[in-house]
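Thread: Modeling a multi-component assembly for a lab meeting

Hi all, long-time lurker, first post. My supervisor asked me to bring a structural picture of a complex we are working on to next week's group meeting, and I have zero experience with this. I have the sequence lines for every component (556 residues in total). Could someone generate the structure of the whole assembly? Inputs are pasted exactly as I received them:
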Amino acid sequence: MTATPTVRVRGLRRTYGDIVAVAGLDLDVGAGEVVALLGPNGAGKTTTIEILEGHRRRDAGEVSVLGHDPSRADLDWRVRVGIVAQASGDLGELTVREALSHFARYYPRPRDPEQLTELVGLTAKATARVRTLSGGQRRRLDVALGIVGRPRLLFLDEPTTGFDPQARRRFWDLIRQLAGTEGCTILLNTHYLQEAEALADRVAVIVGGRIVADATPTALVGRTAARTVVRWADGRQETDDPAALIAALTGRYGGTVPELTVSRPSLEDVYLDLIGDAS
Amino acid sequence: MTSTVLPGTPRRPSAARLGLHRAAIEVKSFFRERDAVAFTFAMPVVILALLGAIFDGVYPGSDVTSAQYLAPSMIAAGVASTTFINLGTGIAADRDDGTLHRLRGVPMPPSAYFIGKILMALVITVGETVALLGIAVVAFDLSLPTDPERWLTFGWVFLLGATACALTGIAASGLAGSARSAGAVMNLPYLVLAFISGVFYTPVGQLPEPLLTAGSLFPLKWMAQGFRSVFLPDSILPQEVVPSWEHGRIALVLAAWCIGGMVLCLTTFRWRSRRSR
Ligand SMILES: Nc1ncnc2c1ncn2[C@@H]1O[C@H](COP(=O)(O)OP(=O)(O)O)[C@@H](O)[C@H]1O
Ligand SMILES: [Mg+2]
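Re: Modeling a multi-component assembly
Sure thing. I ran the full set together rather than chain by chain. Output:
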């Protein structure tokens, strides 16, 4: 048996009136993989992920998620798919425990709500009304609700927008744990480069509704490894051969080059390059 | 596509069971939300207490006081509030705050959502009716009928009236652009109907002809008339529009609204707000 990808997208298109939100997008997510769809606001991330979730219609293209077309998904498919939407404001009057116990009832083999509360770090808030939670706590509840049914595939849309750095790190640990010990396949939308780098096996950069790069974080940086940046007091130069350049500079200054730094391009440079070129 | 269920493999729970669980959290959420309790549940109670205290006098030819005449009509208005307004604003809010979006992403048969909503509305409507009857009996000396036939009438008027208003409310939830506008979109027709159906303005027979005709097109007038036939003596009939309780016509109009409401629900119900499809 050849491994069919968990998510397979070919030539996906979606327009809203004159706006082309998704313009011929191709994407594969293999079983057990964590893939980040990374792109600026308005790039088409939410439209894409909601089409994969069976929540929005598409104008063209082939989509297969867990072997099914999500636009015709049934409830057994829903059991295997977990969704954390970009924003939510529901459940306000219930407590965290009530919400988790309630949603556990929809699934044939749910997680234990108490253990799940612990897993997402909300034990101290178990009896608090959902509307009293902070943004980060609410987001963790959303994730708990997304995984309460033990999904094989989890969709996360901008899971950490508005988090402080510490909360973001704790959240990343949780996602790594899901991917690592539980083998959950994850497709996550984000506009934070660091998040993609920290979590993803593969990063697909989306700009203007198209994938402009799709590789491991390391390979993305490697694509432009030739261009090392050398900076000094009076200048800056990109080069393939930093040693030669530094030797030349040393000669020119007759000794120590003032304020010399040599840097490999970061993923951020690559990303800014990519979204700059594409737009 | 067939799926074999291995022995010992747990199945997805049924729509009926999920509907019951949904009703439980819906009722809980309703009573914890101050706005809903104040506007939907408490308002008719307050209006009955206030108008009942303000109105005075006895109708000629009977010993029915104005407050006693008001009480059964207010029960009808209470039923409309806890079904029509409750479901109309509640579903608009569910569409706006992400409730429906979340539910569409979990393995829930859509019918479980409606079962939950309707059971919730039923529980709250029974509570509302008991509260209104309690006030009428304690404060305004309304006597409860002993004749079982009258309670039978109460039963079918209540069921048909509540169903018609609930279905119309579910259908109307889609007319409001957002949860915020839903309050106005639902309350305006409700208040207008309460006046032209002879609830706030008593007795109904004194309403100007054009308003009466307009009111007669909607279920509230007929539900109120049905409840008056349960709790008031026939000596009050001269105050009605026609000197008869017209049970047959009440049943007909309410049933027609049930069917029409159902058709509207099936044709207009939207799971998503216009913005996100
Ligand atoms: N429901 C909608 N109606 C009209 N335009 C929309 C709608 N949803 C998204 N768009 C537009 O489509 C483009 C992509 O949006 P979106 O998929 O939300 O991007 P992202 O999630 O990457 O920020 C944007 O230009 C956005 O304004
Ligand atoms: Mg988005």
